[in-house]
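Notes on consecutive records. When two proteins share a document, each keeps its own sequence and its own token line. Never mix them. Below: protein one.
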Amino acid sequence: MKGVNVIVHLASPSGFKLKDPELVMKITTSSIDSLMESAMKEPTVVAVVLMSSMGTMLDSTKEAPYQYTEEDWDLTAIEAAKKHGMSCLGGLVYRASKVGAERAFWSFKDCKPSFSMTAINPA
């Protein structure tokens, strides 16, 4: 990472064969933690961008019309993935892991990094 100015994190385990939500969530959050810890140590980093997902915000318990903001998290995805365990559908595992990863990402904001942080949540 030495000399890097901008980091764009695009990787995430995905696929309908993902079955272990605990493992996938651990992998996604630990990869964010590792990336951000390294970025915090490199003075040349000016920006970190996370490719997240609109699914991190969507919550089926909200009634339409509802305007989502950066305060919204789909915590039901994490709860459901943990509840269903190994019988969980891959799409739900993916969505829960994206919620966990983005929450881990934003937790580094409290460390007052010297670089900007941006999460993109495409639909």
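Protein two starts on the next line and is unrelated to protein one.
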Amino acid sequence: MLYMENAIYIICAVVIFFMGSVVGSFLNVLAYRIPIKESIVKGRSHCTSCGKQILNRDLIPVFSWIFLRGKCRFCGEKISPRYMIVELICGLSYLTAFLALGISVKLAFAVVLFPVLIVLSLWDIDRKEIPYACSIIIAVLGLLSFLTEEMPWYEHLIGMAVIAVPFAVLCFLGAMGGGDVQLMAAAGLLLGWNVVPAAMIGIILGALMGIVIKVKTKLNIICFGPFLSVGIAAGFLWGGDIIEAYLGLIR
């Protein structure tokens, strides 16, 4: 009986990883087509170099890129590893959420939240801005979370206020953009108090990367979106545990 339960659990984990990688493949389509105003529902995936349609067997997330050695089957032009990386990250994020949350309402939230975080990260990297629509989606998830029993509704509002004010100050000082403020306000509405460790993780990662970029390129420009997204994901999965661990250290 235990063997059957373990087998089913492993199968579920594999299926969820594959689902995540498929979603990641679609996110690549969004990130490529939306900026050039190409339809995301019409037309099959094609090589950006030779324009030929990609065969069905070459559309398997992660593995097709590996089997093709990162090159187009027809013209031999290199395919950016970013496509495979996004698919892998999305698959792993779904798998991590499943392992951390099990089959639950919160997992359903993660299935929506994590792709949004990945899209806004890609957009911020490419265009140096965070899409307003992504913050709206996260805010809607925050409102829907009022219906769950994990946290009182007013704590969600407190989380939004607690994080929005300092981020607005940072924006006023020129340390962050308005999109970062909107994103973290929406995250506060979703996470409540758990947004605090999320913000700290994002700021620390961003600051460390900023130091590396400044040393190597002498530039001060840094996209905080990806780092804030990592923090939000961590806060969503383990925010309560992080806060409890911190309080345990200072007692």
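For the record: Residues 33 and 40 are 6 Å apart (CA to CA).
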